[in-house]
Write a structure and sequence with these properties.
It holds the Pfam family Rhodanese. The chain has a five-stranded parallel sheet. Strands 3-7 form a two-stranded antiparallel sheet. The protein has 137 residues and is of the alpha/beta class. The protein has one domain: Rhodanese-like domain (Oxidized Rhodanese, domain 1), CATH 3.40.250.10. α4 links the parallel β5 and β6. Helix content is 26%, strand content 17%. The protein is globular. The termini are far apart.
């Protein structure tokens, strides 16, 4: 079973566990167009490793890219995506590959859409007003 934490719980854990790592598993297009968590005030770096392509095809090199990025099986690894679905896939892949402490960030970066179809207002990293880097518009 994969543990789940809210974005705020994740943020608080990243503050105290300096060995923990947050991995954004969305696509480069999402990072560039929507933004991503900013961990600079924690003196940490967000890792960006896509678990799927923009077309929904699985990244077969995902686990090897985790290892190449220096993520170690004994670390606590938090996975975030837009809504929490792809990050659950990423956490499952990592867990099945020997990563012992994986956590899915519940509701992801944007969370579900509100009645008007707008994300980032109800739940998720944006709704919890955690630090972000967003594209200049």
């Amino acid at each position: 079973m994969i543990d789940e934490k809210t974005p705020m719980e994740t943020w608080k854990q990243l503050q105290v566990d300096k060995e923990a790592v947050l991995i954004d598993v969305r696509t480069p297009q999402e990072w560039e167009q929507i933004g991503y968590p900013d961990l600079s005030t924690l003196s940490q770096e967000l890792l960006k490793i896509s678990v799927q392509t923009i077309f929904g095809e699985r990244n077969d090199n995902f686990v090897s890219e985790l290892r190449q990025a220096g993520v170690r099986p004994e670390q606590t690894v938090y996975f975030i995506c837009r809504s929490g679905k792809r990050s659950m896939l990423a956490a499952s892949l990592a867990q099945h590959s020997g990563f012992n402490h994986v956590v899915n960030v519940k509701d992801g970066f944007e969370g579900p859409a509100d009645p008007n179809g707008i994300t980032g207002k109800i739940a998720g990293w944006l709704a919890e007003k955690l630090p972000v880097l967003q594209p200049v518009r």
